[in-house]
Amino acid sequence: MEKSLARYIWKNTRLQQLWILAVVAASMVPYFLSFDLPKQIVNGPIQGDGFEGPGATQTFMHIAYDLPLIGHVEFFQGLQLNRFQMLMALSLVFLALVVLNGLFKFYINTYKGRLGERMLRRIRFELIDRVLRFPPIHFKRVKSAEIATMIKDEVEPMGGFTGDAFVSPALLGGQAITALAFIIVQNFWLGMIAAGIVGVQAVVIPRMRKRLLELGRQRQLTARELSGRVGEIVEGIGTIHGNDTSNLERADIASRLGRIFSIRYDLYQWKFLVKFINNFLAQVTPFLFYAIGGYLALQGRLDIGQLVAVISAYKDLPGPLKELIDWDQMRQDVQVKYQQVYEQFNVEPLIDSRIQELATAPVGALTGAFVVTNLSLSDDSGARLVDHVSVEIKPNETVAIVGPNGSGAEAFAEALGRMVWPDSGRITIDGRDLLDMPESITGRRISYASSDTFFFHGTLASNLLYGLKHAPMTDPVYDEREALEYKWHSAEAEKAGNPTLDLNSDWVDYKAAGASGPEDILKAIRPVLDAVLISQDILDLALRSTVNTDVHVALGDHVVALRASLRDRLRDEGLDSIVVPFDFDAYNAQATVGENLLFGTMKRPLMTNRRLAAHPYFQQLFRETGLSTDLYAMGLEIAENAVELFHDLPPDHPFFQQLTFMTADDIPTYQALLQKLQSRRFEDATPEERSAIIRLSFAYIEPRHRFGLLSNELMDKIVSARKQFHEHIPADLAELIERYDAERFTPSASLMDNVLFGRIAYQQADASDRIRGIMGELFDALDLYDDVLSIGLEFDVGSGGKRLTMVQRQKLNLARALLKRSDYFIFNRPLSALDQRVQDQITRNIIEGLHEEGHRPAIIWVLSNARLAEMFDRILLFDRGGLAEAGNYPELSEKNGMFKELLS
User: Fold this and answer.
1) How far is residue 797's CA from residue 460's CA, in Å, rounded to a whole number?
2) Which intervals hold domain ABC transmembrane type-1 (predicted)?
3) Which of 63, 232, 299, 427 is the most buried (most CB within 10 A)?
């Protein structure tokens, strides 16, 4: 990186800087004329100088010059104007100069802004580019939040300074010198006074501001450290809660905030002291002008027009001067920030940029062997992990790496996957050093997966296909307006030194996954998901999701057939009672009271339970049917039973999992509410109290909670109210509530609710698992499985994939590696979160599945279970950083060595 910010700016923007400097130089001409014109107006037409006689005239706009070698040249003879005409003409010229100076400022500031934004874009991109090229070990020493803060916030002032770096001193300095020169021309002594004050400001103020710069640097460092500390708290929240250290973290944060407060308060005090002195010096000069200039005018040594012009010129002097001093402070401030950025990002050795060059053409298969020669690895503390290991792994070979934790097996696999760099020795393929090979080869032909997983915020599908997004494969189709917009953005990107790659292109290399395009990519994905045993998880996510029938048309069209097929299947297997279907004329005992009353779904977030309860029509229905008092009485009994049964239980008792209508924290609240409402009628309770009690009844399910509160009479009353509700429902509610219909799809309901069209009976053991298994088979039979799978793949995984379980994350990480169909697969204990039985099954699935594709890729697997090594061609046994044993399974299992000990 360039160490000096000024050199960095000049290197990247010198042509633009030269142009804007030329514009600034041209702007000084009308700026100077605007100072002289007030004197001409006051002395000429206003005071009458040159218009002594009646009808006297003067020449306006006479343009003539004495040129060397040519002599006197007259360009325009001018116009003869009387006193009034001259006043109007000079005033109009003054107005024109004001407009012209304003246009110059507008152009200069706009150009500076665009130049600054381009530079900010350039430096941010270059910093992120450097992050992408940091050596792997460097990421163990830095905090991601600090890096993000520097790129996002700390370089922001550098963009604003770019436009001012050379233009501001030229423009502001030129304006200040022009105004000062004009004052000196009018009166030497007044000019010397102004020059003296300017000199004091130029010397004293910058010296005082050095303290401001140091305080600003401290503020920046403490703020960045705070950002990094907050990032640590967010990432380690589980550790904090698990060790009761939340108050320690509060104390740490309070201490850091106190330090920042102290620095900022000191900075404000010093800042306003500097401002006070600067303003005082600026205001002293007009006092001297009025006093001394007025004295000279009284003596006749200075005319009134000159005094007015001097005061007018000085009025424009403090502004540029103050801004020039501010510019100098900004220059020093951003140089300090840039120096910190330089120190943070000037990391050596960086990955060579050629290694990460874009490659759009298909990459040929790796046919050479992995040759590891005298490999040594250390961690960032210098502890030796692998010590002088040499081995050759051939193409198509399956190699099991075994060894206890800390044996060096994991570090060896990381080196093969280029996750760590060797201290000494080499890893080569076809004679080429692995570290010198382009990522377009290693990232496509070598797949690496470990137990450490990370997923970007987005859908399951986008993260699963992430390993196939190497380069734009197709150009997007734009209309005329979009094409012009893209062309403009591309031009701006090029000027800012950014690549012009189009993110809207389709980046997925479908052929690498064995598909021809997005239409059949699911056929390539599904075997991979089946192999890592995550298909059922994704199917469950799909069943809990709502379906966009505009996208998944087939599901919407076949949902009625699916319902019928499910009923037939359940009847054939003698499971009729496992699902209780919805019936408009009957109460569904397996559904809540609220679900039975509504008999439909709400279009959230436009309609919620609270909004529905507050709707006048809903409240009127409750009053007319008498359900208010019935459900209030029911809610009281629910509250009494729950409080009586559970008030002595600890909050984490498993019984609370059965209470859908109340949490452990609600028990004391309802206990107090029951005491308050004791012996009080429905009419005596407040609306809030009624709502709190009735809410309990809405979530009640008789077969689940078993309080014996639902009589046949009350169930019939709820069904009757349901019919009345839908019969006279107003238009505004009808748009937001979708009634259940056995003959159509309900978009606002989940896929499972649509297929079931009912509720699963709570009395049946494992009913939910059996239903999901049957549904999966039905989707397959009706050729809808891929559609359902695609709905599950639309699930948002959250930040870092944290909406998935650790088991799901490790399975998905393994599936992402498998989808690339590489020549070498390196698996570094990728399934440590799974139990051993499932690990074994997935391992067998993968080895059998990969070797059915015909090209038999090489598989290098660091195993947790040494017995699985029987499936591999060769075994490498690591111990204490060295290669202790090597051979095939029969050889090592019969030999009385370390491997036999691991098997026992």
Assistant:
1) 6
2) 75-326
3) 427
Query: Which of 582, 597, 586 has the alpha carbon at shortest distance from 700?
Result: 597
Rounded CA-CA distance 815/527 in Å is 10
Tokens of 643: 């409080």
**Those residues with Cβ within 8 angstroms of residue 803's Cβ, 6 or more apart along the chain or in another chain:** 795, 796, 797
Token duo for residue 715: 């169930």
Tokens of 583: 């019936």
Whether the CA torsion 577, 579, 584, 586 is positive or negative: it is positive
- Paired tokens of 227: 């950002």
Question: Parallel, antiparallel, or unpaired: how do β-strands 858-862 and 824-828 relate?
Answer: parallel
pLDDT digits (tens, 9 = 90+) for 572-609: 888 888 889 999 999 999 898 888 988 988 887 788 77
DSSP string, 810-842: HHHHHHHHHHT--SEEEEESTTTTS-HHHHHHH
Do 745 and 549 contact (CB within 8 A), yes or no? Answer: yes
What's the pLDDT score for residue 802?
86
CB proximity list for 487: less than 8 A, separation 6 or greater: none
Pair 293, 311: CB distance under 8 Å: yes
The pTM score is 0.77
395, two tokens:
């193409």
DSSP-derived pairing of the beta strands 579-581 and 370-378: unpaired
What single letter denotes the amino acid at residue 467?
Answer: G
**Quick one: pLDDT at residue 307?**
63
230 burial type by CB count under 10 A (0-12 exposed, 13-18 middle, 19+ buried):
middle
Which one, of 827, 819, 823, lies nearest residue 509 by Cα?
Answer: 819
What is the full DSSP assignment across 405-471?
Answer: TTSSHHHHHHHHTTSS--SEEEEEETTEEGGGS-HHHHHHHEEEEES-----SSBHHHHHTGGGEEE
Place of tokens 């359900």: 627
- CA separation for the pair 474, 564 (Å, rounded): 43
Q: Please give, one letter per residue, the 3-state secondary structure of 273-318.
A: HHHHHHHHHHHHHHHHHHHHHHHHHHCCCCCHHHHHHHHHHHHCCH
Phi and psi, residue 827, nearest 5°: -115, 115
| pLDDT value at residue 703 | 84
Distance of alpha carbon 542 from alpha carbon 524, whole angstroms = 19
pLDDT value, residue 268: 74
Cα–Cα dist 180/35, whole Å: 11
Spatial contact of 747 and 607, defined as CB atoms under 8 Å apart: no
Three-state secondary structure readout of 473-519: EECCCCCHHHHHHHHHHHHHHHHCCCCCCCCCCEEECCHHHCCCCCC
Q: DSSP H helical segments within 553-592, as ranges? A: 553-572
Beta bridge pairs of residue 33: none
As beta bridge partners, residue 446 has 824
CA atoms within 13 Å, Cβ hemisphere of 409: 28
**Phi, psi for 457 (deg, rounded to 5):** -60, 120
- Element holding 216 (H helix, E strand): helix 188-235
Asked whether the beta carbons of 371 and 427 are under 8 A apart, the reply is yes
CB distance 896 to 862 below 8 Å? no
Give me the phi and psi of 171, to 5 degrees please: -70, -50
Rounded distance, CA 664 to CA 646, Å?
8
Looking only at the bridges linking them, the beta strands covering 398-402 and 858-862 are: parallel
CB hemisphere CA count around 83 (13 angstroms): 15
Q: What tokens does 35 get?
A: 């100072």
In whole angstroms, what is the distance from residue 116 CA to residue 155 CA?
Answer: 11
Dihedral sign, CA of 424, 430, 431, 434? negative
Give every residue of the chain whose pLDDT is below 70, as ranges: 175, 179, 182-183, 186-187, 189-191, 193-194, 197-206, 209, 242-243, 278-279, 281-319, 321-322, 325, 652-658, 765, 852-854, 904
CA–CA separation, 590 vs 759, rounded Å? 6
